[in-house]
Design a protein that fits this description.
- Helices cover 35% and strands 22% of the residues.
- The chain contains 19 helices and 27 strands.
- Helix 4 crosses helix 5.
- 2-deoxy-2-amino glucitol-6-phosphate is lined by residues 303-306, 350-352, 355, 358, 401-403, 490, 606-607.
Length: 610
């Protein structure tokens, strides 16, 4: 996704902008640029490609600018090239701006501005905003008001930062549907789309809400609505530390995040299990627990890996709460005019808390009166703030585009919610205590699995040139099969599909031959014998079998070509364990293929556009 960073104060903005853009690279982008005021003269430098290229062009001490903005662009309108890169300017070049989001009515605005004589140089929707603001500045309206008037004509989403050389002592920022945060310094202020760009300079931040515009100066800021109503903003202290952002000694963020899952799961559990009561305490939804436990229907809605977490949540809710539960792709849910009742509980799962489809689905569900719960990782994110209430997963910043520790943290929190709600219903104290006891062992069990990563790496070496993979599981592990397939696809670019294991005979088994690696998730649970039958069906067709099996399984070696062993646990928590080898397998295959696992091609960490 696009990244925004800005600075105004007594320091030189240039190194701050470049460093901030580097912190945002993980979001995925294809071009970068900065806009500066040097002795109040506007200077815009931008290029297709990486921030490092921009850094060469800007130079470390060529320009000294007390105010500037920087952008990394992930193309939505117009191909990735220098012309379409941000900042975009008005015709005279004395106003420049950067934009995250999509302007939906940009074509009609462009036509109208062209009729007024404006000439466009780019194919982007963003350039329309620059000329539209200019059309108000021409009427001797000050920048802050001109921006508000322009935005009142815009439909769509934006995170904006705007500089005008005739008003050199301010940056105007505006937010609607794309996150923006103001960083507060000593006689200096920052703006960014993600707190990680500010962390090196300040931990005091203010989150802009949708429909808010801010005039940011070195000494302070003024926030208003587009309708010119003053707003008082609350200052938040960021809890992330710099080392959390850095790679912590691992060669990639993704490996760091896979390896830190014992700690991240521990953090998701921290202070939330109550052994003596056999339950969990979740402050954010304490008052909604009875509603959750007794609602007529539950719906999980999300995208990608988070959608897979929802599929696991469905098994949890139906096993322990006996509530009819559905799982919806957010992108489908939002446009289907979904049937939603006030008695429904709808849970929105999102690591970033900014996924456009999930946020839109949330707004649709709220309009129809359901109880809307956000299960997010990023504190203060849009979905977290838009939800009626929710639970943070506390996985820490997940920088790798492929989600790993956030997924296991999501599963942890869904199990905590299930436990807490079930103990408001029919679950006994003894059963609750048994779950709590098993829960407490999970971080150590994850550590045990991670200690086998060299064995997984050896298996990855054997299969790194495969062109297709199948992943099969049953029950709670069917969603894990889907997640394992997605992990492989998104970082190694190998085609992979996940299926319920029994589904093989309804078509996919036609794909099986000696060139097809088939990963079976086969822990010793209630479906084990069935899985063994499925393994034998594949073996009979010379499929290459990799089994994720229980550490005490003494027959699996007869059927599988390769076995990765995991500790046993209860069914509800098994996906937290079975996904770990699949994360490692995907990781090592991609690394052995020489691919960029942290920033896979075509992908973004947070898809904040439709
Ligand atoms: C998962 O590895 C992908 N990065 C992607 O599918 C992701 O899970 C999806 O875009 C949802 O993101 P969110 O959890 O931030 O909403």
């Amino acid at each position: 996704m696009c990244g925004i960073v800005g600075y105004i104060g007594s320091k030189n903005a240039v190194p701050i902008l470049i460093e901030g853009l580097k912190r945002l690279e993980y979001r995925g982008y294809d071009s970068a640029g900065v806009g500066l005021l040097v002795d109040q003269k506007p200077i815009v430098i931008k290029n297709k490609g990486k921030v490092s290229e921009l850094e060469k062009r800007v130079g470390t001490n060529v320009y000294t600018a007390p105010v500037g903005i920087g952008h990394t662009r992930w193309a939505t309108h117009g191909e990735p090239n220098e012309t379409n890169a941000h900042p975009h300017t008005n015709t005279t070049g004395d106003l420049f701006l950067i934009h995250n989001g999509i302007i939906e009515n940009f074509q009609s605005l462009r036509t109208s501005l062209q009729k007024q004589g404006y000439k466009f140089v780019s194919e982007t929707d963003t350039e329309v905003i620059a000329h539209l603001i200019d059309s108000f500045l021409k009427k001797d309206i000050d920048l802050f008001k001109a921006v508000r008037l322009a935005l009142s004509e815009i439909e769509g989403t934006y995170g904006l930062a705007i500089i005008y050389s005739k008003e050199p002592d301010r940056i105007i920022a505006a937010r609607k549907g794309s996150p923006l945060v103001i960083g507060i310094g000593d006689h200096e202020h920052y703006i960014a789309s993600d707190v990680s760009a500010l962390l090196a300079y300040t931990k005091q931040v203010v989150y802009l809400e949708d429909g808010e515009v801010a005039e940011i100066r070195a000494e302070g800021f003024l926030a208003k609505t587009i309708l010119d109503e003053d707003i008082i903003k609350e200052v938040t202290e960021i809890s992330m530390t710099m080392e959390e952002i850095d790679k912590g000694g691992y060669e990639t963020f993704m490996l760091k995040e896979i390896m830190e899952q014992p700690e991240s799961i521990q953090n998701s559990l921290r202070g939330r299990l109550i052994p003596e009561e056999g339950t969990a305490k979740l402050g954010g939804i304490e008052s909604e627990l009875v509603h959750i436990a007794r609602c007529k229907r539950a719906v999980f809605t999300a995208c990608g890996t988070s959608w897979h977490a929802g599929l696991v949540g469905e098994y949890m809710f139906e096993q322990f709460l006996r509530i009819p539960t559905e799982v919806e792709y957010a992108s489908e849910f939002r446009y289907r005019n979904p049937i939603i009742q006030p008695e429904d509980t709808i849970l929105f799962i999102s690591q970033s808390g900014e996924t456009a489809d999930t946020l839109a689905a949330l707004k649709e569900a709220k309009r129809k009166g359901a109880l809307c719960l956000g299960i997010c990782n990023v504190v203060g994110s849009s979905i977290a703030r838009e939800s009626d209430s929710g639970v943070y997963i506390h996985a820490g910043p997940e920088i790798g585009v492929a989600s790993t520790k956030a997924f296991t943290a999501q599963l942890t929190v869904l199990a905590l919610i299930t436990l807490a709600a079930a103990r408001k219903r029919d679950m006994s104290l003894a059963d609750g205590k048994a779950i709590v006891e098993e829960f407490l062992k999970i971080p150590e069990k994850v550590k045990t699995i991670l200690s086998q990563r060299k064995q997984v790496e050896e298996i990855a070496e054997i299969f790194k040139d495969a062109t297709n993979f199948l992943y099969l599981g049953r029950g709670y592990n069917f969603p894990v099969a889907l997640e394992g397939a997605l992990k492989l696809k998104e970082i190694s670019y190998i085609h992979a599909e996940g299926y319920p294991a029994a589904e093989m005979k309804h078509g996919p088994i036609a794909l099986v031959d000696e060139n097809m690696p088939v990963v079976f998730i086969a822990p010793k649970d209630s479906t084990y014998d069935k899985i063994i039958s499925n393994i034998q069906e594949v073996r009979a067709r010379r499929g290459n079998i990799i089994a994720i099996a229980s550490e005490d399984d003494d027959v699996i070696e007869k059927y599988a070509n390769y076995v990765i062993r995991i500790p046993n646990t209860i069914r509800m928590l098994m996906p937290i364990l079975t996904v770990i080898p699949l994360q490692l397998l995907a990781y090592y295959i991609a690394v052995k293929k020489g691919l960029n696992v942290d920033q896979p091609r075509n992908l973004a960490k947070s898809v904040t556009v439709e």
